[in-house]
């Protein structure tokens, strides 16, 4: 009897409980080589290729594209080739192959979704060892370097997993996309351009054959009009509708990837944090010329963190311990179609305005392309949500443990304010500060907010 080996889904990134199958690169009966791409999986952090742990024949695949597989559950089964070299059982591959022993909740700071050196790496801080090394398939961490996987050639097309996932989402046939990357690699921009111009539509319908009766004049088939709704029926009586419990207009959709993790983290935060929110308006009337609003917000947060360190901290509610941080790493909320990412702007207290803008642009690009390392989606010390870019004045943003505070910036407005001798119209920015009242006092929060207001009121 053949020796069948079962491959269990490894931890694809710092304790994530599950991942979604995006695409299988093999089918049952195929022969695959060691470390060749087995499938692409989407997690709350990224889309990554999972390599094959064996050389041999694929005998079973667990799950179809779109299915959610729990970490530690069976992913695939193989019949290893006895004549081929296999990886030693004890060899470290950067992830675990064994079945899951227990199901635990993800670390609270895994909700989130940058680095500030010119090379895209973390600013050196003295060579301190990093934790959770080698847990991400396709983005292994070694020392202070993140090794991102190379584009794999599958079906004659070279592309990284995130590009393949985007093509699947936009219904683009990668084989028909003109690559612009080095060595013929298809990039994110190539897929987006193909989707925009329709040059590589997936499964495009072939041209219709002209029927023999095409020369005759046939009455066109007109679409049937949908029933019209109105406040009264034809009989003149009020229309009654069935309650939603009896009929639904749509189908339930399983949350996956980023949205699934967001829902889980928000529920955990709601259960763990004792939130309190303070609001006020920053007066920007003294600003000279056009200024980078986000950069000024970050500078104000840094100033407030230095004035009141209690809010630039982590809090452990179980052990009732607090950790104050000497550096300011700001988690910046980035809204995408896939859900919310909070990448970490590292060492914000060391950056000037230009450095902040450069780092934010790099973060946003990495988030949109789903190429941001998982290590940069956690570990921030305080958060910023600039929701005013869209709408809204005040809010009660969610504090995600272990952080203690989050700043929300609302939509700018021109308000009438009283001044000595009369009234003036000033440009003002609404601010909302939500903090965990277990870790900080109301006085500390008020002084923190006051420090932000003072910094934002400066001309430059």
Automatic annotation (TrEMBL):
Ranges of biased composition (kind: Polar residues): 243-252
Record flagged with keyword Transferase: yes
Biased composition regions of type Basic and acidic residues, renumbered to the chain: 82-95
Annotated CDD domains: lipoyl_domain
InterPro entries associated with the record: 2-oxoA_DH_lipoyl-BS, 2-oxoacid_DH_actylTfrase, 2-oxoacid_DH_E2_comp, Biotin_lipoyl, CAT-like_dom_sf, E3-bd_dom_sf, PSBD, Single_hybrid_motif
Keyword 4Fe-4S in annotation: no
GO molecular function: acetyltransferase activity; lipoic acid binding
Keyword list, A-Z: Acyltransferase, Lipoyl, Transferase
Gene Ontology cellular component list: cytoplasm
Catalytic class of the enzyme: transferase
Taxonomy, superkingdom: Bacteria
Cofactor(s) for this UniProt protein: (R)-lipoate
Enzyme Commission number, as recorded: 2.3.1.-
Limits of the Lipoyl-binding domain: 4-79
Ranges where the Peripheral subunit-binding (PSBD) domain occurs: 158-195
Region feature Disordered, mapped onto this chain: 80-134, 212-256
Record's subunit section: Forms a 24-polypeptide structural core with octahedral symmetry.
PANTHER family: DIHYDROLIPOAMIDE ACETYLTRANSFERASE COMPONENT OF PYRUVATE DEHYDROGENASE COMPLEX
Family: Belongs to the 2-oxoacid dehydrogenase family.
Protein name: Dihydrolipoamide acetyltransferase component of pyruvate dehydrogenase complex
Native organism: Rhodanobacter spathiphylli B39
Lineage: Bacteria, Pseudomonadati, Pseudomonadota, Gammaproteobacteria, Lysobacterales
């Amino acid at each position: 009897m053949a020796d069948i080996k079962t491959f269990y889904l490894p931890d694809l990134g710092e304790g994530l409980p599950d991942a979604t199958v995006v695409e299988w690169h093999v089918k049952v009966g195929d022969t695959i080589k060691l470390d060749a791409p087995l499938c692409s999986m989407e997690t709350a952090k990224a889309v990554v290729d999972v390599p094959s742990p064996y050389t041999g024949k694929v005998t079973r695949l667990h799950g179809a594209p779109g299915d959610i597989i729990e970490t530690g559950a069976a992913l695939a089964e193989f019949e290893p080739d006895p004549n081929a070299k296999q990886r030693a059982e004890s060899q470290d591959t950067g992830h675990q192959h064994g079945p899951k022993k227990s199901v635990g909740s993800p670390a609270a700071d895994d909700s989130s979704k940058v680095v500030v050196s010119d090379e895209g790496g973390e600013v050196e801080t003295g060579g301190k060892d990093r934790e959770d090394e080698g847990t991400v398939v396709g983005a292994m961490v070694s020392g202070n370097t993140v090794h991102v996987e190379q584009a794999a050639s599958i079906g004659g097309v070279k592309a990284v997993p995130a590009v393949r996932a985007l093509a699947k989402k936009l219904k683009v046939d990668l084989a028909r996309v003109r690559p612009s990357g080095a060595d013929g690699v298809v990039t994110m921009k190539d897929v987006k351009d193909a989707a925009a111009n329709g040059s590589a539509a997936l499964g495009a319908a072939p041209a219709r054959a002209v029927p023999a009766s095409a020369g005759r004049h046939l009455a066109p088939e007109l679409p049937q009009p949908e029933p019209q709704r109105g406040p009264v029926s034809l009989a003149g009586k009020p229309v009654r509708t069935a309650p939603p419990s009896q009929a639904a207009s749509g189908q339930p959709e399983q949350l996956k990837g980023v949205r699934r993790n967001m829902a889980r983290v928000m529920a955990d935060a709601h259960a763990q944090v004792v939130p309190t929110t303070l609001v006020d308006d920053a007066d920007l009337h003294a600003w000279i010329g056009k200024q980078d609003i986000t950069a000024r917000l970050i500078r104000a947060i840094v100033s407030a963190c230095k004035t009141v360190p209690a809010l630039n901290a982590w809090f452990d509610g179980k052990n009732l311990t607090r950790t104050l941080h000497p550096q300011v790493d700001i988690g910046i909320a980035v809204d995408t179609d896939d859900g919310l990412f909070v990448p970490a702007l590292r060492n914000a207290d060391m950056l000037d305005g230009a450095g902040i803008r450069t780092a934010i642009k790099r973060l946003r690009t990495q988030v949109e392309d789903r190429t941001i390392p998982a290590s940069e989606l956690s570990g921030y010390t305080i958060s910023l949500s600039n929701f005013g870019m869209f709408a809204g004045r005040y809010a009660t943003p969610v504090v995600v443990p272990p952080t203690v505070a989050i700043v929300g910036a609302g939509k700018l407005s021109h308000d009438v304010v009283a001044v000595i001798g009369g009234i003036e119209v000033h440009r003002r920015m609404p601010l909302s500060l939500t903090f965990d009242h277990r870790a900080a006092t109301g006085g500390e929060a008020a002084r923190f907010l006051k420090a932000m207001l003072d910094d934002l009121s400066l001309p430059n």
